[in-house]
Amino acid sequence: MGDEVPDELLRHVVRTSGLPPAVASRLVADIMGYFVESAEEYVRRRHTELRAEQVPNARIWTVIREELTTRPVAAPLLSERQLRRIVYG
């Protein structure tokens, strides 16, 4: 994904928050960095964290499944063929 903040997103954050562009850019870059994990990376990390808290595996799977319904995760890289299948079936 890189550290580049999309211009359209930066303009939106500046317009809706009133933050100066430099501050908005840092904020958006930080937030984007937080959500670059793939679903697999997120599951592994959360499993480790929850095990460290001594949460039983049976509960961990429920927690992670629920968290993934609301947490944005990085989309996998898709080939041109995969993109075409999404569009054309």
Query: What is the radius of gyration computed over CA atoms, rounded to a whole number of angstroms?
Result: 17 Å
> How much of the sequence is in beta strands?
under 5%
Biggest sheet statistics: none
SSE pattern: HHHHH
Structural class label: mainly alpha
Q: How would you describe what is shown here?
A:
67% of the residues lie in helices and 0% in strands. It has 89 residues and is mostly helical. The longest helix is centred in the first third of the chain and has 14 residues, at 21-34. It is flat. The chain starts with 6 loop residues before the first helix and ends with a helix.
What is the topology?
Elements lengths: L6 H11 L3 H14 L4 H14 L4 H12 L11 H9 L1
Tell me briefly what this model is.
With 89 residues, the chain is mainly alpha-helical. Helix content is 67%, strand content 0%. The two termini are 27 Å apart.
